[in-house]
Structures are given as structure tokens and as C-alpha cells.
């Protein structure tokens, strides 16, 4: 079963608790500046494991120490609770260092 789309109000409310994330259309994005290239790769590895466990996968762009995560539930056609939950998990993993 496909998750329900979040309303614009739901997304705005969720982003209050996700201050590093911004909305662009049907996705939310966050860019992290890692301490080193390998630290960025390690963050991607940890996010990949969490994403696999949740069966919900972000788009990830790696540019040296800058890692950008973009979330959207493509099969639902926009943002769902899966995206905000994974955004919170990415924030948690990033804070761990």
C-alpha cells in the first residue's frame, strides 16, 4: 500500500522540526558539509543502511565534502511521512558525526 501524501500544511509543520531541510516542489533537500571526504562517505554509508532498513531511498549527490540528500516518495507522487521520518534519521546520523 502506497503511503498518503502530506498536505502543504503538514509539510510546513514538519519542516519546523527539520530546520536544515528545504522544500522544492515535491521534495525536501539538505546539504551537509562533512569534515572530510571520507567522513562524508561514511555518513552516506550509514544513511544507506537506514534507508535500506526503511525501504525508502534518498537521492544522494556527493561533491567532495558536500553531501546533498533529496527525499520524495516517487511512487506516491510527492512527500509522505516516509520522507519526514528519513529526514529525521539523516539528521540524527549526521549529528553523531
Automatic annotation (TrEMBL):
MF annotations from Gene Ontology: 4-alpha-hydroxytetrahydrobiopterin dehydratase activity
Keyword Transferase belongs to the record: no
InterPro entries: PCD_sf (IPR036428), Pterin_deHydtase (IPR001533)
A Pfam family assignment: Pterin_4a
The UniProt record lists the keyword Mitochondrion: no
CDD domains cross-referenced by the UniProt entry: PCD_DCoH
Catalytic activity field: (4aS,6R)-4a-hydroxy-L-erythro-5,6,7,8-tetrahydrobiopterin = (6R)-L-erythro-6,7-dihydrobiopterin + H2O
The protein's enzyme class: lyase
PANTHER family reported for this sequence: PTERIN-4-ALPHA-CARBINOLAMINE DEHYDRATASE
NCBIfam families assigned to the protein according to its UniProt record, in alphabetical order: PRK00823.1-2
Name assigned to this protein: Putative pterin-4-alpha-carbinolamine dehydratase
Amino acid at each position: 500500500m502506497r503511503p498518503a501524501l502530506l498536505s502543504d500544511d503538514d509539510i510546513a509543520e514538519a519542516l519546523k522540526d527539520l530546520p536544515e531541510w528545504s522544500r522544492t516542489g515535491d521534495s525536501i533537500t539538505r546539504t551537509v558539509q562533512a569534515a572530510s571526504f571520507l567522513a562524508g562517505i561514511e555518513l552516506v554509508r550509514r544513511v544507506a543502511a537506514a534507508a535500506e532498513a526503511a525501504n525508502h531511498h534518498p537521492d544522494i549527490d556527493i561533491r567532495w565534502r558536500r553531501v546533498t540528500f533529496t527525499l520524495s516518495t516517487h511512487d506516491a507522487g510527492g512527500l509522505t511521512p516516509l520522507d519526514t521520518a528519513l529526514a529525521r534519521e539523516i539528521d540524527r546520523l549526521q549529528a553523531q558525526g
